[in-house]
Amino acid sequence: MAAAEGVSLNHISRESSDITRLAKFYQQLFGFEEVESPKFGEFKVIWLRLPSSSLYLHLIERNPSNNLPEGPSSATSPVKDPSHLPRGHHLCFSLSNFQSFLHTLKEMGIETFEKSLPNGKIKQVFFFDPDGNGLEVASSEDS
């Protein structure tokens, strides 16, 4: 038996040197809405919530003295090809308008890698956000 009970995912944090740009990306593609966020003083944050769920995305201003690449798969790190994401670090969202969403990604000039689960029922597309964080979008089984 697990030590914790009633567990649910609360939020995912992403650090960025441009949280406004990153917020617009997630708002435009996935429909996240900005919610009230605390004022930390030494750094800025933008908190977003996905309206159809209780999932929050916390975008946190990057510490300028941090010398690490912008994201885990940013242009300055060795992995920038979305075909490496199926086995790598990524977030996944499911949606019902998969083909329309693919069209939007292509219109935005976002490089993608597409595949399906072995049973062929779930389609997947892998790509990066503007900071190089890996993303997957999966079709719902009935789409």
UniProtKB/TrEMBL annotation:
Gene3D superfamilies: 2,3-Dihydroxybiphenyl 1,2-Dioxygenase, domain 1. Residues 8-140 form the VOC domain. Coiled coil: none annotated. The keyword Metal-binding does not apply. It holds the Pfam family Glyoxalase. One of its GO terms (molecular function) is lyase activity. Keywords: Lyase. This is Lactoylglutathione lyase. It comes from Cicer arietinum (Chickpea). The gene is LOC101511728.
